[in-house]
Specification:
The complex is a heterodimer of chains A (352) and B (560). Helices cover 41% and strands 17% of the residues of chain A. With 352 residues, chain A is of the alpha/beta class. In chain A, helix 3 links the parallel strand 1 (55-60) and strand 2 (82-87). Chain B has 560 residues and is an all-alpha fold. Helices cover 71% and strands 1% of the residues of chain B. Chain B contains 27 helices and two strands. In chain B, a hairpin with a 2-residue loop joins strand 1 (40-41) and strand 2 (44-45). At the A-B interface, helix 3, strand 2, helix 4, strand 7 and helix 9 of A face helix 5, helix 13, helix 21 and helix 26 of B.
Chain lengths: 352, 560
Amino acid sequence: MSHRTSSAMVVAVAIAGVLATYTAVGATSTPPPDPTECADEFDQTLVDAATAEGSVVFYTAAHTDEQAALLAEGFSERFGIDAEYTRNSSSDVINLIDAELTSGELNADVVGVGSAAALAAWDDEGMLAPVDLPNSNSLAPGIWEQGGTIVPGHLAAYGVLYNTDNTPEPPTSWAELVAAGNIGMPDPEVSSGVVAFLYAVDTIMGEGFVEDLGGAVTMLTDAGTALPQLVMTGEIDFSTPTVPQFLAGLVAQGEPAGMVFMEEGTPVVPTALAAFAEAEHPNAAQLLLQYAVSCDFQTQMTATGSISVIAGLAIPQLEGASELLAEDLVPIDDSAAAAMRDELIERFQSGR
Amino acid sequence: MAARRSVQGRFGIAVALLWAAVVGLVVVYPLVMLFRRSVEIDGTWTLANYREFMRTPGLRRAALHSLVIASSTTAAAVLVGVPYAWLVVRTDLPGRHLFRATALLTFAAPGFIATLGWILLLGPRSGYLNTPLQNWFDLERGPFDIFSVYGIVFVITLFLYPFVFLPMSAALENIDPSLEEAAASIGVSRWRIFRDITLPLTAPVILAGATLVFVSSFIVYGPVALLGRPNGYETLPTAVERLLSFPPNIGLAAVVGVPTMALLALLLWIQRRVLGKRSFTVVGGRSRSRSVKSLGRWRWPSLMFPLAVLLLSLVLPFGVLLVTSFRKAIGRPLSWSNLTFTENYRKVFDHPQFVESFRNSALLAMASVAIAVPFCTAAAWLVERGSLRVRGVIPVTMSAALAFPGAILAVALILAFAGEPFSLGGSFAILLIAYVVRCLPLMFSYLQAGYRQIGVELEEASRSVGASQMSTAVRVTFPLLATVILPIAGLTFILNFRDLDTSIFLNAHSTPVVAVTLFDLSEDGVVQVMGGFAMVVLACNLVIAALIALALRISTRRFS
């Protein structure tokens, strides 16, 4: 059993495993299981030890505010352990933890970020604790090796957000999107997720596309902030990369929001969760990670638009989104994306 | 000429030692920790981060852009704030009390909220003000583009002009009118009186306000990120954000604060040199009555200027957010069927963190003001009344926090207080420290300027009849400072109540604050609920501003 895993490799394999499972079971036509039918089991010794600790703290960029709240509330309700969270962007979470480590007192027990590459440095230094998942047999084959340190939390598919009233016929391919123009994006210089996205479309579309995309983007923002608003008001026509969780929130508000997944391929980004080896509440941290990938919580995540890591759980088909099929998903090797960061940004900027 | 009174007694030394202890702990220690981070890489002391800063073209360009933004905004804020204050305080302008009270409200919400409002108004493709013009004149795009340098300066000026307006108003209130009346009696024109008497007497507050506007606009983040990034226009704070992104480089980001501190020290030195040892006493030992100039036939035309300021700084940006708070969907046209007057506000009041975030923000704001007022008053007293040799470092030290963007300051506080022996990470206490540190520059600056306007002879007269220094301070000086303390306390409360830049880094879910909750709503795309939340924040601050204005009127009547 290895205690340190090559994070990016295992995640890429994990996603491939998930996709294979979805294809094998025809998951697009299988409804998600009823949460009450989940038969999650947790080691009572661990539960008792975690309960004695009383609380757990997690800093997350891997969840929306809604998802983080669901995780905290569900965990507290299930085990009677206080779960406190701070939600922020990946870079802010990492900087916060980095500063706490420098100060000598780490508050976080568990960390969640947008991609495993962001945790690679800590993993290599042995700062992350090995994890055992009791439901490892329920996860897609190849997605998880017991004793690993970085747990794939869920998968986020990158689509294109648009206003259905203003754009009744959205583009259905990346090439059409670039031709249509008036696109808004988070600045790749401040968003590791966008770097991964650029890597993915570069892989999917080939040479020259990243430059063309740079030329078609009319608005860069500091993060995802304000992009949905700018699309809805018509200041921009499209925003990408956008995850389905945003669409769900907009549709719930009554907005004329739509999301399209491109026919050439939809990048899929795995989120990464980990517990710190020196956590103040090590048992509660382990239990939280186990709960985060449990059938119970993963089912709740699919309801918010995320793709689960559990075998057999359907790819969520959200209202307002084009159909998302397993064969269209393109897994991202985020360590390769991180290695190409400077080149991708330079090429993107050269097209602007 | 007012003479600085030597404070050699034990009282003065005790105050100085107490000041040094507190400022050393909450300001100097965190900044030292941050500086250490900027010169230490993997345990080795090195200037590599500084060399990289100088070598990186993007950072040099960002520094230049910061200078451009800061210079332009400062000039604009002075051009708006000074005449606005004169009109409101010294003339019979209709509605002047309203204009004065509402100036505080420009700070009612975090800067990014007002900026989002201006994007809704002046977005080149779909702005509510641009679209009609676009249609009428058959243009491809609206004539106004908020996503430009001009847009950035425009928005920040409307946000920061009160830093000049408020102290200028207080200073004009305190000027002995006999000075101006004497000049008028010998036929000097109004313009010359203003230029040769009023302006020089108010120079300390104008310079203090201008310095604050300059440094604040130098390091402002929200408006530049929202309005500049779309066109690749970067200033130092947005460059810092890029450095803090993955892979993070806190050491290099910390370097950014150093040139800003150097700039700040230079500005303060210039301020001292310009003001020198001149006297700006305007509150002397004789009683005075306030004079209000009649504008005559210019009374109603003069109203256009303050109305325009009120419209642009408050009514339009917050008005559009008010309308947004009544919309069901911002993606559909504005129509009766797309309006709801209760649904979004129901969601606001049902928000799980609504009560807690308001409570935390109110407590933090009140506590930080309660701590900062006596501390800054003592510091200003040491500078303006003391004779300690080292008093020259007090203004720079008290203003040091201004040199660092909120995120960097938050990192400094974490480095200092999250670990042993303090262990304050994620706590209410570290937020309180942050709020106190953030408000020191502004409060100290105004109180120092206020002290300059009070004649020493008043305090000497009190001491000469046997009153102690403490008794003199409490019974003579502080009541005269009330016209400065009250508005600055109110302004600081409002600023801290809606602080985002530092809070977003330091707050945990268990200590929610208003600005972070607003930001989360914005990030989640629920702009309508965010608009409603912002309106509730505005309403609370409206009450605060009204109370401050009332207290100010009572105190000025009492001491006039």
